[in-house]
Design brief:
The chain is mainly α. The chain has 18 helices and no strands. The chain has one domain: MFS general substrate transporter like domains (Growth Hormone, Chain: A), CATH 1.20.1250.20.
C-alpha cells in the first residue's frame, strides 16, 4: 500500500467507510474476547464433570455453525432487500441482549442454555459479512475496494491480537463473566456508530415470501453461471472443512500435545494468528497487483495445508505460535483477494446474496470438522489430527483445481485495467 493510499489517509478521506470500520472493529473485539471465554467455559465444565473436553468444545462449535447454516442464506437476501443500516443496528442490539444473558446462563447447572445463546449470537452474526462486504464498493468505489478490503482484513487481525490480549487480562484479573459483558457493550457501541451510516438500497419492488425465496435462488443461479465466482465460493467451504478442526482441537492440543495450560496459551495462539493477519491483510493488495488477484487466491489456497500439517511437529509452544503467525499471514492475504474478486465481478444488486453464501458455507465446513472432532474425541492424538487434516486439505485443493474449470479461469483472470501495476 503506497503512501498515497495509506490507511490513515484513506480513512480520513472515506467518511462512510470510516464509520463502518469503527463499528466493525469494536464489535469484532468483543466477539474475540467472548469466543475465548465460550471455549474455555465449556472446556472447563467438561473437565470438571469428567466429560470429554474435545467433545464439549466441538459441540459448542456445532451449535454455532448450525445456526449459521440455517440463517445464512436468508441473511444475504435480507441485505439486498432491506435497509442495511437499520438491519445492522437491530442485529447488534439483539446480539447485545444475548451476550448480556450469558453470565446468568453460566450459573445454571445445565450447559444447554450456553449452547442456545451461542447459537443465537452466531445466527444473527450472519447479517454482518454480506452487509459489510457489499457496502464497501458503494462507500469507496470498485477501484478503491482492494485498499478498503486490506484495511478491513488487517483490522480484523489487529482486533484478534487486541482481543486475545484483553481476554487474557480479563480472565486473569476478573472472570469469564466480564468477557461477556465486554461483548455486550461492544455490540451497543457498534449499533450507535452504525446509526449514522448512509447506504444505497438495491431493493426491488417485489415483496412476500415467494419473492424472497426467488431472490435467494437468483443469487445461487448467478454463482452457477460464473465459474470463477463458483470456484471462490466453493473454496471457502473446502478450506473451512479442514481449518474448522483448529478451533475445537486447540485447547486439547495445547494440553496434551504441548503440555501447557490452555487458558494461558489459547489467547496467545490467537494473538499470533492476529499478528500474522495484520501482515497478510496489509500486503494483500500488493500481492494482488504483483501476481494478479485470481492467482493469489489459488496460491494461498494451496499453501495453507502445509502450515496446518506442520502443527504436528512442535514440542514447544513458541514454535506453535510461529505457525499461528504464518497461518494468519496466508489466511488474511487470501481474504483480501477473495473479497476483491467477488466485489468486482458480482453486480451490486446481488452482492448481499453472494456474500451471504459465505457464512453458511463456512459454517457447513466448520460443522463437518467439529462433527469429526466430536466423533473421534480422544481416539487420535491432537497433533496427528492436524497432520491428517493438512494432508487431506492439500489433496482436496489439488482435486478441486483439477475438477472445477473456475480455478483455471480465476488463474487467468486479469486485474481491473484501472488497478496500478
Amino acid at each position: 500500500m503506497t503512501a498515497a493510499s495509506s490507511p490513515w489517509r484513506f480513512l480520513a478521506e472515506e467518511r462512510g467507510f470510516r464509520r463502518l470500520w469503527i463499528a466493525t472493529a469494536i464489535s469484532e473485539l468483543g466477539s474475540v474476547v467472548a469466543r475465548v471465554a465460550f471455549l474455555l467455559l465449556v472446556h472447563e465444565r467438561a473437565v470438571r464433570t469428567g466429560g470429554a473436553p474435545e467433545s464439549a468444545t466441538a459441540l459448542m462449535l456445532i451449535a454455532e455453525m448450525l445456526a449459521m447454516v440455517v440463517c445464512g442464506p436468508f441473511a444475504g437476501a435480507m441485505v439486498d432487500r432491506f435497509d442495511r443500516r437499520r438491519l445492522l443496528v437491530v442485529a447488534n442490539l439483539i446480539q447485545m441482549t444475548l451476550a448480556a444473558t450469558v453470565p446468568f446462563a453460566a450459573r445454571a447447572d445445565a450447559t444447554w442454555p450456553i449452547y442456545v445463546l451461542a447459537m443465537g449470537i452466531s445466527g444473527i452474526s450472519t447479517v454482518f459479512p454480506p452487509s459489510r462486504q457489499s457496502a464497501i464498493p458503494d462507500l469507496v468505489g470498485l477501484q478503491r475496494a482492494p485498499t478498503a478490503n486490506a484495511i478491513s482484513s488487517s483490522t480484523t487481525s489487529f482486533v484478534i491480537v487486541v482481543g486475545a490480549a484483553v481476554a487474557a487480562i480479563v480472565l486473569e484479573a476478573l472472570d469469564k463473566d466480564a468477557c461477556f459483558w465486554i461483548n455486550a457493550a461492544s455490540f451497543l457501541v457498534a449499533a450507535i456508530a452504525l446509526s449514522g451510516l448512509v447506504l444505497p438500497s438495491y431493493a426491488g419492488e417485489k415483496h412476500g415470501v415467494r419473492a424472497f425465496f426467488a431472490e435467494i435462488a437468483a443469487g445461487l443461479a448467478h454463482v452457477r453461471r460464473a465459474p470463477p465466482i463458483a470456484y471462490v465460493v466453493l473454496c471457502y467451504f473446502v478450506s473451512f472443512v479442514f481449518i474448522g478442526l483448529w478451533f475445537p482441537i486447540m485447547p486439547e492440543y495445547l494440553r496434551r500435545h504441548l503440555g501447557v495450560d490452555a487458558e494461558v496459551w489459547l489467547p496467545r495462539s490467537y494473538l499470533m494468528f492476529g499478528l500474522g493477519g495484520i501482515v497478510g491483510g496489509m500486503i494483500g493488495p500488493w500481492i494482488g497487483r504483483r501476481v494478479r488477484v485470481g492467482r493469489a487466491v489459488v496460491l494461498t489456497f494451496f499453501l495453507e495445508p502445509f502450515v496446518m500439517a506442520a502443527y504436528r511437529l512442535p514440542t514447544s509452544p513458541w514454535v506453535m505460535m510461529a505457525l499461528s503467525f504464518a497461518w494468519g499471514v496466508l489466511a488474511f492475504a487470501y481474504f483480501v483477494q477473495e473479497h476483491t474478486v467477488l466485489q468486482q465481478d458480482v453486480p451490486p444488486e446481488l452482492r448481499g446474496r453472494v456474500f451471504g453464501m459465505l457464512p453458511p458455507l463456512q459454517a457447513l465446513g466448520t460443522l463437518t470438522a467439529s462433527a469429526l472432532v466430536y466423533w473421534e474425541a480422544g481416539r487420535i492424538p491432537p497433533g496427528d489430527v492436524m497432520l491428517i487434516a493438512g494432508i487431506g486439505y492439500f489433496t482436496a485443493s489439488a482435486l478441486f483445481l483439477a475438477l472445477f474449470p473456475g480455478g483455471v479461469a480465476l488463474w487467468r483472470r486479469p486485474n481491473l485495467a484501472s488497478e496500478p501495476p
